[in-house]
Amino acid sequence: MTDTVRTPQRRGRSIASRRARTALLFVAPQVCGLLVFTAGPLVASLGLSFSNWDLVAPAPTFTGLENWTHLLADDRIPAVLWNTVRFILVGTTSFLLFSLIAALLTYTPRRFVGLYRAALFLPYVLSQIAVGVVWRWMFNSQSGPVTNAVELLGIPAPDWLLDPATAMPSIAMVVTWQTVGYGMTLYIAALQGVPTTLLEAATIDGANRWQRFRHVTIPIISPTVFFLTITSLIGAFQLFDPVVAMTGASVGGSGPATAGGPSNSTRTIVLYMYNQMFNYNEPISGLGYAAAIAWMLAMLIFIVTAIQFVVGRRFVYYESERAPRIKRRRERGVA
Amino acid sequence: MRNARVQTALYHGLMIILTFAFVFPALWAVSMSLRTDENMFAADQLIPHPITFEHYARLFEALPELWRYFLNTLVIAVLGTAGTLLSSSLAGFALARIRFPGRGALLVAMLLTLMVPVHATLIPQYVIFRELGWLNTPLPIIVPLLFGTPFATFFFRQYFLTLPLELEDAAAIDGAGSWRTFFQIFVPLSGPAYLAIGLLTFVSLWNSYFLNTIYLAKQDSWVLTQALQSLIGRYQAEYGAIMAGVTLVSLPILIGYLIFQRRIVHGISMTGLAN
User: Fold this and answer.
1) Segment B21-26 long-range contacts (CB within 8 Å, at least 24 positions apart)
2) Interchain contact, B117 vs A105, CB within 8 Å
3) Confidence tier at A282 by pLDDT (50, 70, 90)
4) Gap from A204 CA to chain B (nearest CA, Å)
5) Do the beta carbons of residue B220 and residue B135 sit within 8 Å?
6) Helix or strand or coil: residue A318?
């Protein structure tokens, strides 16, 4: 692919078109991947949601709107949505708050701070299954350390994962514990980008600590708050692994089929989709109904994200001279 | 002066408690895996005495093919990571450094794809891979990754945008085309980006569960997370063996984290800039 010597008058145009052709080769795998593994299946999935298929029959049978009317009437759908909301109320909010607190505690360089950051980030690299299995034991009502710690404070410990009222909040706490290090890391990068000149100017104007935080720091880190809110909500809608690890009772690898208890209080959208995908016992179930649930999930995520973009436009602050700051941060991140 | 010292002490006290709270479960899991059955629930056994490896023996009895799950996981993580790095960095390079028609549209399409949950494309993919006879093989998980992931592509694009413009000029003067410019100039300069995204991809593949449980139903095609999950039902009371499993599954990642901790954290903070 090396360029050969060309006559000067042709050179400019042919290089540009040749570049463009090469560029298409560069992006070809990614474009093919998007078409074959995302765009195509997304459309096919929508098609399947209007059909009934148990994988035994050679092809899906068209059933019109049956899956969708069933979905609207299925009383398990509001239940799984409510479980997701309960997860968000405890998990996502505490994730956003505690990661910021962790970042505020560790963003200034001082002794041992690298060690603290490393420790807080550690759970994030472990598998949600391994973490879930350990916490399942930590929550053990007779001898688990969490129970012991709570009782040490003189509070009667709840039954954690065994009580429908506390199972989902317990899972949310574990997910927060595992992901705080991730949020903290992004907040630290944002906090280090707050110009000290602005903070000094605010001090000279007589702003106290809280006022500086509220009116200087918060606006400048608001893009990161926005980013974390969007990504953590998308993640919350797709909750699966931690629930399986903490509530599933697996025999022979069929873990997800048994998860979601007690009394379905931790059954999530994806868990329900999984169960319907391999459940052909009900008249409306199987791949078609699972595809409808998956599409409902995709639309929910899209709507919630779109709402955030609209609301975020009002609250997220982008500096007018944002580009140079980003560039500085990048250079630091790269070095 | 005194006040500042008290504040420092309070700060470190608080941070030590927090550190403990985040490291404790990992320590406790290792500790439980090394205890005798009688000592399993004793509170004073963080450092077990006596130490026993019987739970590891029991783990291998319960899962005699543990080495196979380890290999399955390794194959998926290594090939998936390699494919993602190659395809995504190629696409990221073109998106960042070459003008071509459709570039803006492709970028928008990729950002939209980031929002599409894997579940919405799962069922047709499952049908296709089943037709191809790929169920219970690692192919349904590896093959899509060979085409790159939008997340990694976007990451590489952001990274390549930060490299100086003079690089292409120098390459063009030397008569190098886009391919040579990419492989001989950009790739060697982008070690940190490859390492960061490579580590993140490897860790997420090593830890993944959902897709594996869909595609790898037969026991000899399992990955480690599935093997770990399978212990729960069988060994409700056998915490020692379960914790031995947790320890073994997490150990490679823990060792990697100790070595590459700064790189991984750096990589994560670079992904935040994607926004």
Assistant:
1) B21/A177, B22/A119, B22/A120, B22/A122, B22/A123, B22/A177, B22/A181, B23/A119, B23/A122, B24/A145, B25/A123, B25/A131, B25/A134, B25/A135, B25/A138, B26/A122, B26/A123, B26/A126, B26/A134, B26/B250, B26/B254
2) no
3) confident
4) 23
5) no
6) coil
Q: If you ran DSSP here, which 8-state letter would residue B223 be given?
A: -
Cβ pair A13, B91 in contact under 8 A: no
- Please indicate whether, in this complex, the C-beta atoms of B146 and A298 are within 8 angstroms of each other: no
Give the CATH architecture of domain A66-334.
Orthogonal Bundle (1.10)
List domains and CATH numbers for chain B.
2-52 (no CATH), 65-272 (1.10.3720.10)
**Pick from A182, A223, A277: which is nearest to B123 by CB?**
A277
Question: Could you tell me the residue ranges of all domains in chain A?
Answer: 8-48, 66-334
pLDDT digits (tens, 9 = 90+) for A165-195: 999 999 999 999 999 999 999 999 899 888 9
Task: Please give the Cα distance from A335 to B196 (Å, whole number).
Answer: 13
Q: How many CB atoms lie within 10 A of CB A156?
A: 7
Residue B262's identity, in one-letter code, is R
**Residue type for A139, please?**
F
Q: Which pair of structure tokens corresponds to residue B246?
A: 């947790």
ipTM: 0.89
* Nearest-angstrom CA–CA distance, A323 and A308: 23
The alpha carbon torsion through B33, B34, B37, B43 (nearest 10 deg) reads: -90
Report the sign of the C-alpha dihedral through residues A201, A202, A204, A208, in that order: negative
Q: What is the pLDDT of residue B235?
A: 56
Instruction: Please state, in angstroms and rounded to a whole number, the distance separating the CA atoms of residues A98 and B96.
Output: 35
> Does residue B183 belong to the interface with chain A, where contact is any CB pair within 8 Å?
no
| Spatial CA neighbour of B209 closest among B184, B189, B232 | B232
Place of tokens 């950051």: A117
In A, minimum Cα distance to B33 occurs at A134
Alpha-carbon span B108 to B113, nearest angstrom? 9
If we measure between CA atoms, which residue out of B258, B23, B269 comes closest to residue A193? B269
The reply to whether B200 touches chain A by the CB within 8 Å rule is no
Residue B165 CB partners (closer than 8 Å, separation 6+): none
Contact A55 B130 (CB under 8 A): yes
Find out whether B76 and B135 touch, Cβ atoms under 8 Å. no
Tell me how far apart the alpha carbons of residues A125 and A105 are, in angstroms, rounded to a whole number. 21
Tell me the whole-structure pTM to 2 decimals: 0.88
